[in-house]
Amino acid sequence: MTFKIALVGCGGMGRRHAHGYIELRKYFDTVEMMAVCDVHHDVAATVASEIGEATGSTPDIYTDFDEMIAKADLDGVAIVTSTPMHHRFAIKAMNAGLHVITEKPMGLTLKACRQMRDVSKATGNVMAVAENYRRDPMNRLTRALIEAGAIGTPYFALDIGVGSSNGAVMHSTVWRAKKEQAGGAPLDAGVHNADMLLYLLGGANTVFAETTINEKQRTLRPMSEVAPGLAAMYDHRKEDGFSIGDTVEQTAVDTAFAVIRFKSGAIGQLLMTDTSHGQSLGVSTISGSEGTMYRPRSRSGESPRIVRGDGSEVTGDALLDLVPDFELDDITSTLWNGVKQISSYDMDFREIDSKILAYEYLDMVQAAETGGQPEVGPQEGMDALALAYALMESSVSGLPVSIEDVAEGRVSKFQDDIDAEMGI
Ligand SMILES: NC(=O)c1ccc[n+]([C@@H]2O[C@H](COP(=O)([O-])OP(=O)(O)OC[C@H]3O[C@@H](n4cnc5c(N)ncnc54)[C@H](O)[C@@H]3O)[C@@H](O)[C@H]2O)c1
To answer: Ligand 1 atom 27: the closest Cα is on which residue?
Structure first.
């Protein structure tokens, strides 16, 4: 059976989804992209023609989501708009009988996510989240190593992403500067860090954090300056009402320092800011009773590395001796050219990114066809967003907050403004 899907939101990440679909079609013919939609016709048309050239079949172009849902012959939709539309489109799609995969974060706020979760439950349609970092084979290996006790009992994690955007708007996207649109590095990017910490260390109980906006006046700079490695995938997008060089008011938190207590008893420290001028620091480690795991950058293909108390190191293929049963799942293995055991790989970013996106689509389709749950469904999507928003909620209250209370709406002061502004 062919699963018929449409893509809504054809900006930077939407184009990357198109590349993921093109990669998927090299290995599988079970998914077909029937339509693409963006409020900007030419933005959607760029993505449609790229798909057409690569696969021989050009999706139909829409500028209105409701019209697409009514007219196109679909089994599901991939929602890759800016974050405020995720819940609106997901709920409409599920109520129309379609399965959904939405980009991270799952929804604008936890209230939006709860609505999505409830509609998925009521309709029985899949609500998957395209959280990509954990699907990197190196992160699969890292988790297998931790689970096998390769660093002993995990004591604490350091997750430090401290750098400078030189006063630029994140990713040259104005919505990322805005609180009510779920912007700001600690939230928009931090939800990846949150998911990875939970993936590697299990559930978390509480967060205490201080957050701030250090730089309220930002400049819209071209993507070629802000993130040169991604620029080619973002050069077709449109920024309504703004031009390069414009000043943009940043209302989203740009700096967060947090301490997390995991259910296992382990402690995590998460630091994120793009206002660290003259200093760039990236630390991603988990220390335990038998040594420290140095985590590679997601989608770098680099091998994890374990350093023991006596200074000895285990990395590369020697890691596989510690987890002899570790194997990639069948879909990942097919996408990674048939390998089952892997300790590093050498591919360019676009190829890696595309393979992971292909995996995410196939995982969602498998859930839809079997009536099962995708790997990252409402629970996992909400857990990661609740941890990211717990940083904001703790800073507003001045107290440690329970992540479950954030997930279920018992703590929501920071998000109440967003929900009110967006009318939910
Ligand atoms: N997983 C990742 O690594 C990753 C990376 C980047 C972005 N993202 C996520 O992907 C989403 C999109 O981010 P982006 O960087 O592509 O932003 P973007 O601004 O480049 O693209 C969003 C697109 O959605 C379109 N859009 C907005 N409202 C719409 C509507 N009502 N109907 C149709 N189209 C609409 C816009 O015109 C734009 O082209 C965000 O939720 C973001 O957090 C995830």
So the answer is: 81
How confident is the model over 76-103, as a mean pLDDT? 98
Task: Determine what percent of the chain is predicted with pLDDT higher than 70.
Answer: 100
Average pLDDT in the chain: 97
| Smallest CA separation from ligand 1 atom 25, residue | 9
pLDDT at 417: 94
DSSP strand E in 204-265: where?
A: 204-212, 217-219, 247-249, 255-262
Q: Residue 158 pLDDT > 90, yes or no?
A: yes
Query: DSSP character for 168?
Result: B
User: In terms of Cα–Cα distance, which of 85, 90, 106, 79 is closest to 6?
Assistant: 79
Per-residue confidence at 245, pLDDT binned at 50, 70, 90?
A: very high
Ligand 1 mutation target, pool 16, 36, 38, most atoms within 8 A of CB: 38
Which residues approach ligand 1 with their CB closer than 6 A? 8-14, 37-40, 43, 65, 80-83, 85, 103-104, 130, 132, 171, 173, 188, 237
Count CB atoms within 10 A of the CB of residue 110.
27
Q: Which domains does the chain have, with CATH numbers?
A: 3-131+356-375 (3.40.50.720), 134-346 (3.30.360.10)
Q: Is the pLDDT of residue 195 over 90?
A: yes
Q: What are the CA-CA distances from residue 140 to residues 69, 94, 137, 299, 343 (Å)?
A: 36, 30, 5, 12, 10
Residue 1 pLDDT greater than 90, yes or no: no
Nearest to 393 by CA among 379, 380, 382, 403: 403
What DSSP line would sit under 362-375, residue for residue?
Answer: HHHHHHHHHT---S
